[in-house]
Design a protein that fits this description.
Length: 218
């Protein structure tokens, strides 16, 4: 399994070589004030759509990050930036994110096995609540499957990983495993997405997508 580094400004031209390929996505060369072409904006729930754009950030990898900038306070509002290729169901996705602001919520997350904007698995971290949660979203309804309390510092970069193989899911935060859960709702290939909630202004500067070999261990 090979690692391909994908710069977001060239994502629209990059070919995915196959389902066994891993990808690392950064936004170092991306056009500011726009959503890279290999991503689409979507919304779970209600409220205004997310406003996703590449922003300059001296602390980000390559000095740029993809940010959700809308401050709509609708509580049942979950903006998504969906990366359009489809990946196998067994994979690990690791993101680096920074929760910048938000009064209702200050959260960032990653979704996988995404069938559409209403059906997927989600791991998210919240800097207002100081916790990490694992959810199943079915027909737009978010249901918590497991959670853990941990300090999530606003304004600082953190890593969040969601590992999925068959019915087993492992969520890690800053390299520490916090959640080991099982669910059988979604098992087929799907897409990967970045996620926020309500008025969260959140930045993401790195996405690692790593399909798992048969029999891979966490």
């Amino acid at each position: 399994m090979t690692l391909r580094t994908v710069i977001a400004s060239a994502l629209a031209l990059a070919a995915v070589t196959g389902p066994a390929s891993a990808e690392t996505i950064t936004f170092a060369g991306a056009q500011p004030d726009a959503l890279p072409q290999a991503f689409v904006s979507a919304l779970t729930g209600s409220g205004m759509p997310g406003r996703w754009a590449v922003v300059e950030d001296a602390s980000a990898e390559g000095n740029r990050a993809l940010a959700q900038l809308s401050e709509d306070r609708t509580d049942n509002r979950f903006p998504l930036a969906i990366y359009t290729p489809t990946f196998p169901g067994d994979l690990e996705v690791r993101i680096r994110f920074k929760a910048v602001s938000g009064a209702v919520d200050r959260a960032g997350g990653v979704a996988l096995r995404l069938q559409d904007a209403r059906n997927y698995y989600l791991a998210r971290a919240n800097a207002l609540e100081d916790n990490v949660r694992f959810y199943r979203v079915t027909d737009g309804w978010r249901e918590e499957l497991a959670g853990a309390n941990v300090k999530v510092t606003a304004g600082a970069w953190h890593t969040l990983s969601l590992w999925a193989q068959g019915s087993r899911f492992i969520v890690s935060f800053d390299g520490t495993v916090l959640i080991d859960a099982r669910d059988e709702t979604f098992s087929t290939p799907g897409q990967v997405a970045l996620w926020t909630k309500a008025d969260s202004v959140t930045r993401f500067d790195r996405i690692e997508i790593m399909p798992l070999a048969d029999g891979a261990k966490p």
